[in-house]
Amino acid sequence: MVKLDLAKLDLVEAAAAVAHAAASQLYGMFNETDGYDWPGTGLEGDPLAGVIYEMGAYCQRKSAFGDQLWLKFRHEGVLQDGIPESKLFADVETSRQWSFQIFARIFRSNYDDMLHLRNAMAAQAEAAARKPAPKPDIEDTIFEPIGSMNEMEPHQRQFLAALARPRREVSPEPEPVIEVQPEPLAINLNTINLGAPSEEKPENQQPPAGNETEQEAGGTPQADALVQRDGDTPAAGDGNGQQGEPDGTAGDADQAKEPVKPAVEDAEKAKNSQTGTKRKRN
Question: Most buried by CB count within 10 Å: which residue of 31, 38, 44, 247?
Answer without folding.
Answer: 38
